[in-house]
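Appendix B: a complete holo record

For completeness, this appendix reproduces one full record from the ligand-bound portion of the collection. The bound molecule is fe (ii) ion. The inputs are the chain sequence and the ligand SMILES; the output is the full three-dimensional arrangement of the complex, encoded as structure tokens. No fields have been trimmed.
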Amino acid sequence: MRTQIYSYLVIGMSGVCLYFVIGGSPQLDLLLIIAFSVLSIVTELLSQRLLGGGSTSLAFSVYLAAVLLGGPIAGVIVAAATSLSADIYSGKPWYRRLFNVGQLVISAAAAGTAYHQLGGEALYFVEAPPDNSFAWFLAAITAAVLFAAINAAFVSGALVLATGESIRSVLSDVFSYTKGLPLAAMLGIVIAQLVAIAGLPYLLLLLAPFLIARQTFMIYQRQQHTYMDTVRSLVAALEATDPYTSGHTQRVAAYARSLGERMGLGDVELRRIEWAALLHDIGKIALKNETLCKPSSLTEDEYSEVKKHPQVAANILGEVDFLGDITPLVASHHERMDGKGYPLGLVGEEIPLAARIITVADAFDAMTSCRSYRSTASVEEAVLELQKATDGHLDPRCVEHFVAALNAGIINPPRLKADGEPNA
Ligand SMILES: [Fe+2]
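The structure of the chain with fe (ii) ion bound, as generated:
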């Protein structure tokens, strides 16, 4: 609810910005706007597919160039068209799509207005290059910084409200995605200068780097398939040692991904969650079969062996370069909010949010699927247990979203057969 109110506020603010930008823009060149919108949509699509949605750097270059060439109105229209087309098949609720458009409209409008106030003219409409190139460069850089900062602030606000994470932890995540922005700003300035000096047709020169990017994407895609095959092999190796966990990792991955989606996490984080959930119990490979499949309670020694599995998993995955970013999640899937978990006894937000999400999904599936050492709980019983476990064990916010997702049918546990085994 808070996220929706925030989104509507941003959408309202963007409407006001739009009103002033349209009123204050005497010149508008349709060809410029169409050319930049097409370029921006192509770069955004490439960027999303290439980098899993984690980067908008290339599209940022095009937005900035549009602002510098055509003023705030050009930046606003290009950014809004790109955002709407990027979300066209996303299935996101409309308030979230309009929030994405709205925050870009405000960022572009503020960047364009600051550029204009600092003496920067819309380069596409002036006869000669600026008299003082240093002053122009300063105005262009100010526009870039303002655009990026406002954009980051709005996105951080949405993430804080959606996930309940602290502002500090969200800002550190958001800033980790903005490392490429200085280079992207420079590229935006170069594109603007190129078009101002040589004309709009020279925008076609940019096709060469995009073709190279496409080639890189195809290589990346092949690499991703290989990575996924490796993950599947590791999961199959685990499931071969313990028939009771068969299907468990896939269900945990599906639940955790849906929960992360509901909590508003981005594609890169969702991919990390999915892979970490698939591999969360890979450390159990090191356990003896008698311990893993024991139908009765474990002895103290056996339990202390079992407690080593997150660290064993971290050691296994830490050796694989492309799995490095999921290692901390796998290592902390048995931590507890009150610090009584293992292996490190992390407390609250010291545990990565993605790991807290996996822990909830893992707990739910452990209760609703058949294990060697206990019988199966119904969905209603499992929900009650999850809610009880918010008293120190599980993150209450994750549980709240999980239960809401169950009630909304976004998370669908498989129907159980009479013997407690899941049907699917
Ligand atoms: Fe585990």
